[in-house]
Design goal:
241 residues; alpha/beta; Purple Acid Phosphatase, chain A, domain 2; 11 strands; 24% strand
Length: 241
């Protein structure tokens, strides 16, 4: 069983199409999306439409939920205000059919891998989409987040930071971000010229996890932003380098 895991698309159709081409070449058995599909990117409607055409299971991300019930601006800093205005614009680009589709997203998705092994998919944690899990999250905190949830592989997104780590007998797997990957440099953060996703393979009782990076055309990403009508497009595009 080979499962491709995508997360945090964030309205970036250029990146999603690059990942889907790589997934097609890998001949997977199943695709699953961990949410945050439309917000914070220049092609929210187009990205939702492409995902819907795939017919794969989708987890409800925190920004997906916000698109369905828009929230008031809570941040007082300038960057927070800009992100809020971008996300507000993204919601306005979604058609009624897009929103109806997004209402079908689930808090968690569970699927069999074979031989009794299972995959549990969520966004932030199984109990809340806004919770963050990373390589330094204490085991005691993980135990609270996963109380009542059991699987061989625990797959979540939200942080845009790919990693694998053990939790008891299970493995936690974050595939990174398709549409808004980032890396920290000495001069600050940047959105790099790749899209991230993950591959899970279970065969004859053996588990293989792979974190993948797919090259993307940054010029296409920036052009999509500048031509979209998205507010603060120049600011959003500045970090793609």
């Amino acid at each position: 069983m080979r499962v491709a895991v995508i997360a945090d698309l964030h309205g970036n159709l250029t990146a999603l199409d690059a990942v889907l081409a790589d997934v097609a070449a890998a001949r997977v058995d199943q695709l699953v999306c961990l949410g945050d599909v439309a917000a914070t990117g220049p092609q929210p409607h187009e990205t939702v439409a492409r995902l819907r055409s795939l017919g794969c299971p989708v987890v409800m991300g925190n920004t997906d939920a916000d698109s369905l019930r828009p929230v008031r601006l809570s941040s007082t800093d300038e960057d927070g205000r800009r992100f809020w205005e971008i996300d507000e614009w993204c919601t306005k680009q979604l058609a009624p059919d897009d929103l109806a589709y997004m209402r079908t997203f689930q808090p968690t998705v569970t699927m069999p891998l074979g031989d009794g092994a299972t995959l549990l998919c969520f966004h932030g944690s199984p109990r809340r989409a806004t919770e963050s899990i990373d390589v330094t999250t204490p085991d005691t905190a993980l135990a609270r987040m996963f109380k009542g949830f059991h699987a061989t592989v625990l797959a979540g997104g939200h942080t845009h930071a790919p990693f694998t780590r053990r939790h008891g007998q299970a493995v936690i797997f974050n595939p990174g971000s398709v549409g808004l990957p980032f890396e920290m440099l000495d001069e600050g953060a940047r959105n790099p010229p790749w899209a991230e996703y993950g591959m899970i393979e279970w065969q004859a009782g053996r588990l293989n996890l792979e974190l993948r990076r797919v090259p993307i055309d940054i010029k296409m990403v920036i052009e999509a932003a500048l031509q979209s009508g998205m507010p603060h497009a120049d600011w959003w595009a500045h970090d793609w380098r």
